[in-house]
Structures are given as C-alpha cells and as structure tokens.
Amino acid sequence: MAGKPKLYYFDGRGKMESIRWLLSAAGVEFEEQFLTTREQYEKLLHDGSLLFQQVPMVEMDGMKMVQTRAILSYIAAKYNLYGKDVKERALIDMYVGGTDDLMSFIIKFPFLPAEDKEKELAHIIQKATGRYFPAYEKVLKDHGQDFLVGNCLSWADVHLLEAILMVEEKKSDVLSAFPRLQAFKANISSIPAIKKFLEPGSQRKPVPDDKYVETVRKVLRM
C-alpha cells in the first residue's frame, strides 16, 4: 500500500496551498516537510529531488513531482476531478488558468514593499470584480448548474473557491454583486471533504504573515 503523499514547502500558503486544497477535496491525507533553513533546501538540491531547483515538490506514487501545474493535473486526474472527456478537461484547464492569473497577484502580495501594498490591493479587487468574477458568474448563469464543468465537482471548482476566499480576506463583501458565485461558494464549501479542510485544525494555512515572508526570503536567498 502506498504511503501518504509528502509535501515539501514552507509552513505557509504560496504555491503549495492549491495542492493542499486539491488533495483535501479528494479526501487524501498527506504529510508535510516544512523548509525552515537554507540547509534543508540545499539538501533537496544536492539529492537531485528538485528537477528545476524549485519547490513545491511532492513525493507521491513513487515520484518526486515538481511544477505546481503538473502536480495539480496529476492529482485531479487520479481522483476524478478532471472531467469525463477531453472537452471537459479543456474547460477545466481554461477556468483553472484564469483563476491562476488572479491568484498570482495575491500570492505575490505579502512580498511587496509596504508602500506598494495599498495600490496593489486596489488592483487585486479591480481584477477580481472587473474581470474574473464576472466571467465565472456568466458561466454559472449560462448553464444553470451548481458546478463549473459537467455538473459535478472538479479541480476548477476547488481552485475557484480557494481564490474567492483569498479575495474575501482582502475585501469581505467582494461577492456582493455576484449572486451565483455566492451560491457557488456556499455549495462547494458544504461538500464534506472541503468543509473539513475549512475547519480549524486542518492543514489549511493562514494568511501569510511577516514570519512566513522572512522564512521564504532566508531559505531562497531572495
């Protein structure tokens, strides 16, 4: 019997958080190895574990996988969260790609100089409410279903819920003009595996703080 997936990253969100989300949505338990020192990172480099000298890295099914998108695609395909055919997979990839574009602004936010954060926060809210959330609101309106693709849970749904909650941490009423996304959020959040991940004590990480930023900078020599 294969062991639990093992996740190598920092004790914080970053690019690993979406992997935690997807594994949890699939009901898969996982272990984590947190990087806190430069020496840990260099050991992974010297061991040849990091093909492109980057984390995240996930040990799973006898593989040492890097590149966030590849890891997520593998998990989605393995646990039936990647559609029933190539057309559904293309839609899922398209929606995940859009959500990634929005999330990239938020992931970078903690590392910005303090004087740039107010302007970037306004930029994030503008992008969310002017480009990305209207698109998903239209998708849900046009097909009249509870999920983005194929009327069943997919990677696209999990990814979008993660992004919605991240933007709501910046502006709590950001969904006020999007009734279908409000219903979507309630629906996806109530799925038992996801509900469990959203509860206190799970492996979901909190909003990045100064300690997380300092650790990443130290380990990666940023």
Automatic annotation (TrEMBL):
Top-rank taxon, per record: Eukaryota
Residue ranges annotated for the GST C-terminal domain, each copy included: 85-209
Enzyme class per UniProt: transferase
Any GO BP annotation: glutathione metabolic process
Claim: Transferase is one of the keywords in the record: yes
InterPro entries, sorted: Glutathione-S-Trfase_C-like (IPR010987), Glutathione-S-Trfase_C_sf (IPR036282), Glutathione_S-Trfase (IPR040079), Glutathione_S-Trfase_N (IPR004045), GST_alpha (IPR003080), GST_C (IPR004046), GST_superfamily (IPR050213), Thioredoxin-like_sf (IPR036249)
Family per record: Belongs to the GST superfamily. Alpha family.
Record-given protein name: glutathione transferase
Species for this entry: Crypturellus undulatus
Taxon lineage: Eukaryota, Metazoa, Chordata, Craniata, Vertebrata
Gene symbol of the encoding locus: Gsta3_0
